[in-house]
Each structure stands twice: as C-alpha cells, then as structure tokens.
Amino acid sequence: MTKITDVRAKTPDELNSMLLDLRKEQFNLRFQRATGQLEAVSRIRAVRRDIARVKTILAERTRSAAKA
C-alpha cells in the first residue's frame, strides 16, 4: 500500500506508469483468484485502493491545471 504523500510527490508521467503497473497487477491477481492460486486475497483490495489514489491525484492535477 502506497502512502498518499508518496503519490503526491510523483510527476504525472510517473503516476501514469504507476497506474499501468497497478492495473497489470490487478489483472494478474484476478487471474490468480480465478484459477485458485491466489494466496494474499487482501492484496486485491490494496491494489484497488492504490489505483483510486493515483487516479484521484491525476484528476486533481488536471482540474487545477484547467483553472490556471
């Protein structure tokens, strides 16, 4: 689980690459769950929340850029 301060410190390019990595991990976790190989079930929730954090920060930055 990443902290919000760590996410806010990243550039938009880093956030986009982080989002891509998290989505790949989410896909892999869903695939593992479907095949019965998933051991850390709580990781699905953590990844989903990390994706939400990154998307929230990206949206905040686009809104602030639009105002300026």
From TrEMBL:
SUPFAM superfamilies: Ribosomal protein L29 (L29p) (SSF46561). GO terms for cellular component: cytosolic large ribosomal subunit. The keyword Ribonucleoprotein applies. InterPro entries: Ribosomal_protein_uL29 (IPR050063), Ribosomal_uL29 (IPR001854), Ribosomal_uL29_sf (IPR036049). Pfam families: Ribosomal_L29. Keywords: Ribonucleoprotein, Ribosomal protein. It comes from the Bacteria. Belongs to the universal ribosomal protein uL29 family. This is Large ribosomal subunit protein uL29. The gene is rpmC.
